[in-house]
Amino acid sequence: MNAPGLSPGQWLAALKRKWMLYHLGDPRFSFMWDAPPENEWVALDCETTGLNVRTDDIIAIGAVRIRGNRIMTSERLELLVRPEKRRLSADSVRVHRLREQDVAQGLNADDAMMQLMRFIGSRPLVGYYLEFDLAMINRVLFPMLGMGLPQPRIEVSALYYDHKFRQLPQHAQHSGAVDLRFDVLMKDLGLPLWPAHDALNDAVMAALAFLKLRALK
C-alpha cells in the first residue's frame, strides 16, 4: 500500500532509496541519495589506461558543476589517480599525454573516489559516453559501497541524437543516421573544441554541449 500523499512512482522511488541506504557499505555517503539541488548538475570525464572496464585503470578525473545555465569553473575537480593494475602504454600516453611520472604521485583510487563523491553530492551527472566513465568508477566503488553511483545521468550524445533526429525529414527518419563523434557534435552546435583527452577539458565541453542542447530543446 502506498504511503499517504505519494504517487506510485514516488512511493517506489522512496522504497528504492530506503533499500539502497540499508545496503550502503559506508553510511558517510548517504547524502548521495538526498534530493539534488535544484537546477544543478555535475559534468564528468575520466582518462584511463585503456578501454577495458575490467582490467584498465582510471588515471585522471575531471568534473565541473553546472548551476542553471552557467558552468561553475570555480567549482571544479581535477584529480590524478595512480593506476594499480596496468602500466601506461605508449599508445595511452599519446592519447592523454600523461606519463608514468605524472601519475606516480597521484591519489590512490579509493581516495579519489572519496573526493569525487563529496564533489558530486546528489547532483545528476552529465557526460559524453558517460556509460564507460561510470563503469570504470563503479568498479572501484563496489568494494567500498556495495553499489555504484546512484545519481541520474544525462548522456550528451543521446541529447544530440534526439536534437538531430527531430531535424530530419520524415522520409529519412527511418535510417536514424546521425554522426555522434564529439568533434562533429561540438562544431555543429557552434561550440569551442579544446584539446581532447584532458579530463577537465572534456568535462567542460560536455557541460557546454549539455547547456546548448537544453536551450535548443
Key traits:
217 residues; alpha/beta; Nucleotidyltransferase, domain 5; 5-stranded mixed beta sheet; 5 strands; 42% helix; 17% strand; globular
Instruction: Quickly name the level 1 CATH class.
Output: Alpha Beta
CATH architecture assignment: 2-Layer Sandwich
What is the element string, with H for helices and E for strands? Answer: HEEEHHHEHEHHH
Distance between the termini: 38 Å
Helix tally equals: 8
Largest sheet: 5 strands, mixed
Strand content: 15-25%
Shape: globular
- Total strands: the figure is 5
Instruction: Point out poorly predicted stretches.
Output: none
**Can you tell me the number of structural domains?**
1
**CATH homologous superfamily assignment:** Ribonuclease H-like superfamily/Ribonuclease H
Tell me the radius of gyration.
Answer: 19 Å
Average pLDDT over all residues: 87
What strand order characterises the main sheet?
3-2-1-4-5
Helical content, roughly? 40-55%
CATH fold assignment: Nucleotidyltransferase, domain 5
Structural class: alpha/beta
Question: How would you characterize this protein structure?
Answer:
The protein has helices spanning 8-23, 90-96, 100-103, 109-120, 130-145, 156-167, 182-188, 199-216, and strands at residues 40-48, 58-67, 70-80, 125-127, 153-155. It is of the alpha/beta class and 217 residues long. It has one domain (30-216): 2-Layer Sandwich (Nucleotidyltransferase, domain 5), CATH 3.30.420.10. The model has no long low-confidence stretch (mean pLDDT 87).
